[in-house]
Structure formats: C-alpha cells, structure tokens
Amino acid sequence: MAQFKSFLVFGPNGIGKGTNAKAAGKLPGYLHFSTGDMFRALVARVKEGNASELELRIDKTMKSGGLVDDQTTVDLARQNLESAVADGSFNPETDYILLDGLPRNRKQAEMISDFIDVLSVLHVTASREVAVERITGRAKIEGRKDDQDAESVGKRLDIFFNNATDILSYYDSAFDGKNEFDSEKIHYIDANQRPAAVLKDFLEYLV
Ligand code: AMP
Question: Range of 143's domain?
Fold first, then answer.
C-alpha cells in the first residue's frame, strides 16, 4: 500500500495545536486527522446506552486520561484514513494529512510508519504551566469532560512530556530535548504567540 504523506502536528494538549490543524485542514489538499476526535466520535454512543464493549473500554480510558492501547489506535486510524480515501475526502496522490494526536509514543511511531510518511513535524509547544492554564480555560468553554478533571489533565500532560523526546528523536536523531530545537525535519512553533501568529507559522511550513 502506498504511504499517506503527512505533517505531524505535535505538542502538549490544550495549547491550540488542534485548533490550528483544524483551520489549516479546511484548505483544499489537506485533511485534518485527529485521533482524539476519532475516539470522541466512537464513544458518542456510550451516552445513548447502546455502545459496544470496545467503545465502553475506550470511553473509560479517555475519562481517566490514559492512552488507548497501541494496536486498537493504529488499526482504527488506518481504517479511518482508508475510508477517507474510499469516500473521496482524501486523495493520497495529491493531498497531505495533518496528523494530530498520533503517535503518542515511540511504538506508535514505528507502527504507523507502514502506512504514513511523516514529511516533517510541526512542533507547537509551550511550557507545562501554560498548557494547564489553557486546558482549564478550554474546559469552561467547550465542556470537555476529560478537561474538567484536574487529575486526568495532569496525567495526560505527564504522558505527553514523558514520551515527547522519544517521539521527536525518532523523527530526527539530532533532537536535543529542548522545546526550541529546530531542524529540517522538526519545525519549532512557539504556542505562546497570538493564535493568528501560530497559524501563520503553520502555513509557512506547509507551503
Ligand atoms: P486528544 O483529543 O488528542 O487529547 O485525545 C483525547 C484522548 O483520546 C486521549 O486522552 C487518549 O485517551 C485518547 N487518544 C487520542 N489519541 C491517542 C493515541 N494516539 N493513542 C492512544 N490514545 C489516544
């Protein structure tokens, strides 16, 4: 199978990476693909009381702030992308995926390399303190359950920062562990800027 060309949008939860990836994904030729959105759509039926065992398990994991297991995540991502090709919303010959939320660890990075070619990484980042502040703000506006629980928020950020160096060094072995690291493969984007400035940086790397 041909590999899907992608830009990996990478950074801690809550600092606006998803918002920008979503905005850029509105442009023809780009598909915003978020595994968080994929899972949220999947567990929507839990509230209706007719969810499958898998959906219930994913719902529980998400509420705790933990990660869904690697095989389930990668299999579902692949199925979703293949459906996007089948229904014409993504043309692998000409289009790019804006990959958001995957990989979350080095194992996933290895697993997706079979079908996703990460051309470069847009590393949208800020300190942990800024991330906590922004997530708390978002919880009030969007009412996301997993953002309202401080323990879950803390756990997600711990997982992110614990795995970030592993993932970034997978894509560029020269990665030195610093947020500001910038290379051919990894582009540093400062999430402390105004949202429009972050989007401008995004687009600069995409064109
Ligand atoms: P997000 O919207 O990216 O913060 O994702 C919300 C939740 O979905 C996460 O806290 C995880 O429980 C789950 N999730 C999203 N992406 C992944 C992934 N690549 N691997 C495992 N779990 C994931």
Answer: 4-204
Distances (CA, A) of 61 to 71, 123, 135, 149, 186: 15, 26, 19, 13, 30
At 40-66, the pLDDT tens digits run 999 998 888 888 999 999 999 999 989
pTM over cut 0.85: yes
Distance 183 CA to ligand 1 centre (A): 27
Q: What is the distance between the alpha carbons of residues 130 and 124, in angstroms, rounded to a whole number?
A: 12
Assign residue 62 the CATH number of its domain.
3.40.50.300
Pocket-testing residue among 6, 59, 71, 104, ligand 1, by greatest number of atoms within 8 A of Cβ: 104
The domain tally of the chain equals 1
pLDDT tens, position by position, 85-102: 999 999 999 999 999 999
